[in-house]
Amino acid sequence: MFREQYNKLNNQVSPGEKLLQDTIRKAEEIENKSHNRVFSFRKPAIAFVSICLCLSLAMPALAATVEPIYELMYMVSPTIAQFFMPVQKSDEDNGVKMEVVSAYIHDNVAEINITMQDLIENRIDETTDLFDSYSINRPFDSSAHCERVGYDESTRTATFLITIEEWGNKDIAGDKITFTVREFLSHKETYEDIEIPLSLSTVDVAKETQKPLNRTGGGGVDYKQSDEENSVALIPSSPMGEFPVEGIDLTGVGYIDGKLHIQTAVTDNLEKDNHGFFYLKDNYGNKVDSSYTFNFVNQYDQAGRIDYCNYIFDVPQSEISKYTLYGDFVTSGMITKGNWKVTFPLEYQSE
Predict the structure, then answer these.
(1) Residue 275 lies in a domain
(2) CATH number of the domain residue 160 falls in
(3) Which residues form the domain of 99?
(4) Who's near 130: CB < 8 A, 6+ residues apart?
(5) Out of 31, 189, 193, 285, which could bridge 45 as a Cys pair, Cβ 3.0 to 4.6 Å?
């Protein structure tokens, strides 16, 4: 009796022929791509195949408990990596519980509702933002995004909707998804249509400028004009004392090459995500948006990083006195870190 049960369980975790061939093929592809390092990479490739075979013959849960192994497997083959991940529909860390509450599949789209509940404090509220710290691992090519869709104050629970759209019209039912969150922001403050106490009629041509080295992006209709080689920015000055948004500093205003430049700064913004945008209003309330923005930092990874955002308006200096500066901003009051991970199959719901 015992032998029969053992054989039955062992057969359930043994790898199929297709899985073995896929594993070997993926390892060989990586080996072939490393042209100049073929000898140094040969052993890791073979070792990876050995790891996969051993895990297949043992128990799939082992791979999930060793994060580096899982990451290596996912980098080589998402299909194999997700095969080894055990189903775990809830996870708790740092007093916060993350749970899969529903999954709905229609055509090639999966919609999954995930909740995050604070079990001990009030760190989750109606402004909770996953802060781009989440990852969605799946064994098929697709696009995916996540958004907050609800909040229950009585239980301190925020609900997020994950939407995954498969690219190849593949039947995704039965595949497993792994959703991971590393941190989230909450207790945000929103400032809308705030008048900035700055007399634009006194703005003059900037005496000193710089070409920022550490660009980090930007946007706007004329953003292409701000390429890294030709972009010029104000040199940051002491923060304006009367700026109405706590957590964002106004560090420069001036004209460069006939255009109005406005510069803000946020210290240690990797743990805040404080942001916003400026616009001008004339005496009739008509809005003028910036032509483009570009961002740069004083340094990347060291403590004391400052993120600068530069807003450029294509308004002549002779006309700027007709306008007033306004802005919309969002600041974050709290960041909570942890390690939450759930793995679950995509299943059709019964009618």
Answers:
(1) yes
(2) 2.60.40.1630
(3) 90-188+336-345
(4) 146, 148, 160, 181, 184
(5) 31
Whether 69 and 167 share a structural domain? no
* Structural domains of the chain, count: 3
Determine what percent of the chain falls in helix, strand and coil, rounding each to the nearest 5: 25, 40, 35
Per DSSP, the residues of 171-217 read --TT-EEEEEEEEEEES-EEEEEEEP---GGG--B-S-EE--SSEEE
Statement to judge: residues 196 and 294 lie in one domain: yes
Comparing CA positions, the residue from 219, 230, 206 lying closest to residue 289 is 219
Of 97, 98, 90, 91, nearest to 146 by C-alpha is 98
Q: How far apart are the first and last CA of the chain?
A: 39
Residue 351 lies in a domain: no
> 204 and 319: one domain?
yes
pLDDT digits (tens, 9 = 90+) for 250-286: 999 999 999 999 999 999 998 899 999 999 999 999 9
CATH code of the domain in which 242 resides:
2.60.40
Which residues lie closer than 8 Å to 166 by C-beta, 6 or more apart? 108, 109, 110, 140, 141, 142, 172
Query: 7 in a domain, yes or no?
Result: yes
CA atoms within 13 A on the CB side of 132: 4
Residue 185 CB contacts under 8 Å (≥ 6 apart), including other chains? 127, 128, 129, 131, 272, 273, 332, 334, 335, 336
Model pLDDT, residue 8 = 42
Give me the amino acid identity at 221. V
pLDDT band for position 47 (cuts 50, 70, 90): very low
Q: What's the CA gap between 12 and 1, in Å, rounded?
A: 17
